[in-house]
Fold:
Amino acid sequence: MIRHVLLDADGVVQDLPGGWQAALAPWVPEPEALFARLAADEEACIRGEGPFMPVLARHLQALGVNAAAHDVYDAVWSSIEAVPAVLGLVERLRNAGVGVHLVTNQNPERAAYMREHLGYDAVFDSAYYSCEIGLAKPDLAFFEHVLSDLGAPGEQVLFIDDSLRNVEGARVAGVAAEHWHHRTGTPALVDLLVGHGISA
Structure:
C-alpha cells in the first residue's frame, strides 16, 4: 500500500513558461554554450557545495555576456510557475491521508526561492532539496535518505519524475516510480496513481 508520494519539481510540480532556451535567449546569444559550460559546476551547487550565483557570473563573463548575473538569474531560474492542477491534486491527496513530498535537485538560491516565494513548505508535507541534504537524484543514497527520513519502506512510496534517469534510480532503491511530465496532463497522472492503488 502506498503511503507516500514523492513529486519532482521541474516538469512535474512547476514549469518555466516557454522553456529554458527561450528564457535565456534575450540574455545569451548561444544558450546551449552556457548550459555546456555550467554543467559540472552546477552539479556541485546542486549537491550544496556552494552558491550558484558566482558560478553563473563567471561563465557569463567567459562568454562575453555583459548582463549582471542576478538579472539573468531572476529572468530565467526564478521565472518558474507552479502548475495549478498538480497543486490541486496534492491537496486532495493530503486530505485523503497520503503524505506528499517534494523531492528535487536544486541549487541553494533556487531552493530558497521555491520555499520563500512559491510557498512550497505549506503545500507539501515535507521537501527534500538536494542542496540541503548534500545528495542528488538519481544517486541511490538520495533515495535511501528520503526513505530513512520518512520511516517507510520503498514499497510504500511512489515517486513521480519527468526524468527517466531519476525514475530508474528510484527503482534501484526499491521505490515504486513512474515517468510523467505535466504536459501529459493531470488525468494521466491520476491514472498512474490509481494504478498504484491511490484514489485521487
In short: The longest helix spans residues 31-46. The chain has a mean pLDDT of 96. The chain has two domains: 4-16+80-195, 20-76.
